[in-house]
Amino acid sequence: MKSTEKTAAAEVKLSDFLCFAVYSANLAFGKAYKPILEELGLTYTQYITIIALWEEDNQTVGSLGEKLFLESNTLTPILKKLEVMGYLKRQRDPEDERQVRVSLTKNGRRLRERGLNMDLVEATGLAPGEFAKVQKAIVTLRNNLVESVQNEE
């Protein structure tokens, strides 16, 4: 390594890393969502699980896990807890007993009215056009990273 490369590498700061920007933004989102989630009595992962079911009810555990980027061993305890809370029900697919289907209950659907009224778009400080561009860029980044890891396997 040349001395100029060593100097440049030594001058790189934590704040220069894209991964740290994404990580710290995720932490900031968590803090911003905390009062909303506390009012709903949910964790963030429970909240996004319910949102995914609002989007498409009666999903298999596998397809829900794919949407949420969660493995079955992580998702199953979340689903069990939400079932105990009365927000969803799990049942074996009558056509394929190996599959478990997840559906919202009336209480799970009612959360939508409460949860959607507490959106944090405004808290980002982004104009609607900026918000859409940032969201799209992050999705592209995530998909590229997922694809690069899959290509290495």
UniProtKB/TrEMBL annotation:
<dbReference type="InterPro" id="IPR039422">
    <property type="entry name" value="MarR/SlyA-like"/>
</dbReference>
<dbReference type="GO" id="GO:0003700">
    <property type="term" value="F:DNA-binding transcription factor activity"/>
</dbReference>
<dbReference type="InterPro" id="IPR036388">
    <property type="entry name" value="WH-like_DNA-bd_sf"/>
</dbReference>
<keyword id="KW-0963">Cytoplasm</keyword>
<keyword id="KW-0805">Transcription regulation</keyword>
<dbReference type="InterPro" id="IPR055166">
    <property type="entry name" value="Transc_reg_Sar_Rot_HTH"/>
</dbReference>
<keyword id="KW-0804">Transcription</keyword>
<protein>
    <recommendedName>
        <fullName>HTH marR-type domain-containing protein</fullName>
    </recommendedName>
</protein>
<keyword id="KW-0238">DNA-binding</keyword>
<dbReference type="GO" id="GO:0005737">
    <property type="term" value="C:cytoplasm"/>
</dbReference>
<dbReference type="GO" id="GO:0003677">
    <property type="term" value="F:DNA binding"/>
</dbReference>
<dbReference type="Pfam" id="PF22381">
    <property type="entry name" value="Staph_reg_Sar_Rot"/>
</dbReference>
<dbReference type="GO" id="GO:0006950">
    <property type="term" value="P:response to stress"/>
</dbReference>
<dbReference type="InterPro" id="IPR036390">
    <property type="entry name" value="WH_DNA-bd_sf"/>
</dbReference>
<dbReference type="InterPro" id="IPR000835">
    <property type="entry name" value="HTH_MarR-typ"/>
</dbReference>
<feature type="domain" description="HTH marR-type">
    <location>
        <begin position="15"/>
        <end position="143"/>
    </location>
</feature>
